Amino acid sequence: MSVADIAQPEGFIALPGSAQLLYDDATVIFRFKDLLLLAMFDISTSRPLPKDLLLTTFKASIDDAIARSELATEPVSLLNTLQCFAGKLNEQLSGGCVSITVAFIDAQRVWGYCAGDVRMGYMREGALNWLSPVHTAANVFVPFTDELKSSSNRHVLTRCLKLHRAFAPEYFQFDLPDDSQIVCATDGFWCDLHWGNPQSLVSEPSQRPFDDCTCLWFNPSALLAKAAPSLAHNELQFISQYDHLELRA
User: Fold this and answer.
1) How does the average pLDDT of the chain come out, rounded?
2) Where is 28: in which H helix or E strand?
3) Hey, is 63 helix, strand or coil?
4) Read out DSSP for 7-21?
5) Residue ranges with strand state E in 106-212
6) pTM
7) Of the candidates 170, 167, 191, 2, which has an alpha carbon nearest to the alpha carbon of residue 86?
8) In 138-246, at which residue ranges do the beta strands (DSSP E only) sit?
9) Which InterPro entries does the record cross-reference, listed alphabetically (predicted)?
């Protein structure tokens, strides 16, 4: 890949799929003093739930945990906050299903929880490296590979946030190499033959994605060094009111 073909240092793609009536992915970032909290959701088409209520409830759950001094960078603290979030949704809705990835990000590391097929990893030297687990019937006992993208079982989730069912997201963590960019995407991006590659971050393919297509990428150090959010999109909510707050123990 030549210098001219390298993706912008940061960016956000959010496109409705050709098979969908409405764009139903959702992305939100909370900025703290020296780290970020990123959440990406992929709402099920067969068991949908209202996106506005999902985001409002998630933000309220984070606000409540901060107000009670219960949100910290330890994995158990984040898991408790996510369990409270799931409980609040259960109180308001009778059903629905969503893939979810929520993770803390600093200059060196990513750690958080996922359930479903929203993936995280990093991009470095023009290569995408997907590292968070994928929970589908196509890879119950093995890591997800490119060969499984065409499997019909890929669309059957073995973990997700399903209302009024036990919510058991999987913990993951990975280090960020120097000069890398964090990448987070729904399966409408990473599993699409035309979109799920570094070149699609340089110039959008002419082929419209089949499913809702979301991909976010940025260098955490560069983003945290900026006084104001530089990522702007009507489908990306960037919450900076806690940029003075220290969450580390």
Assistant:
1) 93
2) strand 25-31
3) helix
4) PPSSEEEEE--TT-S
5) 109-115, 119-124, 127-130, 161-162, 170-175, 181-185
6) 0.95
7) 167
8) 161-162, 170-175, 181-185, 213-218, 236-239
9) PPM-type-like_dom_sf
